[in-house]
Amino acid sequence: MFARSTIRMFLDIVIVSRSIDMVIYLDNSATTKVDAGVAKKVSEMFLKNYGNGSSQHSIGRKAGEELTKAREKIAKYIGCESSEIVFTSGGTESNNLALRGLALANPEKKHIVTSVIEHPCILETCRDLAKSDYDVDYIGVGEDGIVSVEDVKAKIRDDTLVVSIMHVNNEIGTVQPVEEIAKVCKKKGCYFHTDAVQGFTKIKLDSKNIDLMSVSGHKVHAPKGVGFLYAKKGTKISAIMNGGGQEGGLRSGTENIPGIVGLATALDVDNDTKRIKKVRDKMVGGLLEIPRAKINGSMDKRVYNNINVSFYGIEGESLMLMLDKEGICVSTGSACASTKLAESYVLKALGTEELYIHGSLRLTLDSDVSEKDADFVVGKIREKVEKLREISPFKFDGGENGK
């Protein structure tokens, strides 16, 4: 919306850096800090039980035992059989394995249903499959950012291969009715897949009617580079790469056992959800006192640690950079799409006005953010928004929020 060189010039003028002795990290939807207990366990695996789980000597067997225990622990957490857990490198690979694996194994079904607010790795995979004669229906959302069960139901056909709807949106944090959609899919005779990367460990999900579910470790205080795909027994799915046949033949390659053990250990991390939500709500109240600020998406059907807020008439990237100078780490949307500097397709799908879309921030909290931190962040955001509006070419009367 604004020339990047102009933004940088103004930032040099208006930003006065303070001495940063502590960072307030509010980008937990992009990635989380590895928990200390998880890091300790991962380190032990790297230094002691470092064998290849497929090796038959003692070090390999010990590593294989750790792999088995981790798989069983995760399966118990989900409520499935251990054989239904397929370890991968993370959410993107899991999502690709789910959609492409189903397509390879079920070539007679050429129809896919998904939503317009899915993660880029789902949308790009669907676009790629469409080049191979797949018909893809994209379900829209209302202003609340929620997919309608009835809209999904109306799109399912006899040749529908899979419906793929994310559990929690990565930008606006809205919680989708995936359990209800899964029931519809079961009755209609098609597969249901959910990208559960943002909801895993935050919101309990009944996997009874879910055929495929993707999870990533680095969103839950485990290391990067590890995740899994839950694939219900009986789901007709093929591998998408060839190799030594690990993970039941669905994901060849030597398993990342330290990362896998770290992911299983992360299930024990205690997130004080009530306290996080209390701090989040306090922050939301303060942000909405800023003129022409609005929260994007439903507040009722929203994961407890997410704030997606827009400020009319400013550039969100500039605000993000100014806050970074103050030791406050936020994002302007999905980390996986932010390098493209394009307006948020998620906010656009909600029907958000363009001058709000460009002024959006995503703040995602964790247990270590205090009420004092919340007050400091809101104060700095107010200060920076006022400075940006002084130099903004878009003038307004400071009227009612969200109007």
Main beta sheet strand tally, sense and closure: 7 strands, mixed
* Integer count of domains: 2
If you consult CATH, what is the topology of the largest domain? Aspartate Aminotransferase, domain 2
CATH superfamily grouping of the largest domain? Type I PLP-dependent aspartate aminotransferase-like (Major domain)
Beta-strand content? 5-15%
Number of helices: 13
Shape: globular
- Stretches where pLDDT is under 50 for at least 5 consecutive residues are 2-7, 9-20
Q: Roughly how many Å is the radius of gyration?
A: 22 Å
Intertermini distance: 20 Å
Overall CATH architecture of the largest domain: 3-Layer(aba) Sandwich
Q: Describe the strand arrangement of the main beta sheet, using strand numbers.
A: 2-8-7-6-5-3-4
Strand-and-helix sequence, N→C? HEHHEHEHEHEHEEEHHEEHEHHEH
What would CATH call the class of the largest domain? Alpha Beta
Total beta strand runs? 12
> Class by helix and strand content?
alpha/beta
Would you tell me the overall average pLDDT?
92
The helicity comes to 25-40%
What does this structure look like?
- This protein is α/β, with parallel strands linked by helices.
- The longest helix is centred in the first third of the chain and has 21 residues, at 58-78.
- The chain is 38% helix and 13% strand.
- Helix 3 packs parallel to helix 8 (257-266), helix 9 (273-287) runs parallel beside helix 13 and helix 10 (316-325) packs across helix 13 (371-391).
- The strands form 3 sheets. A 7-stranded mixed beta sheet has the order 2-8-7-6-5-3-4, sandwiched between helices.
- Helix 5 links the parallel strand 3 (111-115) and strand 4 (135-139).
- The chain folds into 2 domains: 4-33 and 270-391, Aspartate Aminotransferase, domain 1, CATH 3.90.1150; 36-266, Type I PLP-dependent aspartate aminotransferase-like (Major domain) (Aspartate Aminotransferase, domain 2), CATH 3.40.640.
